[in-house]
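Human:
Care to share another protein and its fold?

Assistant:
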Amino acid sequence: MYGYHVVAAILGTVLGLISYVPYYRDIFNRSIKPHFFTWFIWAILTGITASIQFATGGGVGAMVAAVESICCTGVAIAAFFWGEKDITKSDWACLILALIAIFLWLVINQPLLSILFVVSADLLGFIPTFRKSFWRPHEENASQFGISASHWLVSIFALESLAFVEWFYPAAIAAMDVALVAMLLIRRRQLDQNS
């Protein structure tokens, strides 16, 4: 019989994969335009997170982050070719600050500060997508981020260690996903009422 960690890891991984099916479809149909900076940062973060979770006893739960990293890398590559082309100075600032936060996350040997840096880097990665999506909310797939939030929450239950530094990052990503979905739905309604 499988323990709940394994069941949660499988469920989280399946939810993660399901969330990307419509997202990749919409990218290749050119109906959405993901922001390369966002997905580049997320590919780096999830890859490092999976490695750390494997190394620090996250066990089978680390598979969720590993699969996420592969999916984020695929979106980053697609976004480079077919994604958002309106790159602003604030987008560049977010990218540079996120890379600095990632560097600090990796070199600081203090778990609480490290987790704050990784969450900061993820938030900085989110900002270009939030900015773009505020003005063009139909160029993002809300269902992907909604399912993504649920898969990150399930991934917490898959972790074999429930230390704050293990669960805070997926919880923060889930919260950011929910915030993006809410903003997309509100902005779509506002723009549809004004047209």
Remarks:
- The CA atoms of residues 47 and 163 lie 20 Å apart.
- The two ends are 56 Å apart (CA to CA).
